[in-house]
Design goal:
InterPro entries: DUF503, TT1725-like_sf. The protein is an alpha+beta fold. Helices cover about 35% and strands about 35% of the residues. The longest helix is centred in the N-terminal third of the chain and has 18 residues.
């Protein structure tokens, strides 16, 4: 089962693309190190305070995939400098 979560996020304290990218790089690096998922910024690359992240996970059951994706979303929510706004999940 393949699960893909797309979440739009706001980075309110970013005053430049450099600020935004430093926050995203830290989050993406930690997610990749801690979880067995793929993660990437997929939209709003040229916008200072807005981003869209795509996270994909693959496993043998939907329940296991859903748990892993939820752990990643909870981990992203633990960062005070980023706020998740719209989250969509797709199953393949």
């Amino acid at each position: 089962m393949i699960g893909c979560v797309t979440c739009e996020c706001m980075i309110y304290d970013a005053s430049s693309l450099k600020d935004k990218r430093s926050v995203l790089k830290r989050i993406i690096t930690r997610v990749r190190a801690k979880f067995n998922v793929s993660i990437s910024e997929v939209d709003y690359q040229d916008t200072w305070q807005r981003t869209s992240l795509a996270i994909a996970a693959v496993s043998s059951s939907r329940v296991q995939t859903e748990k892993e994706l939820q752990k990643v979303l909870d981990f992203i929510d633990s960062f005070p400098e980023i706020e998740r706004t719209i989250t969509e999940t797709e199953w393949f």
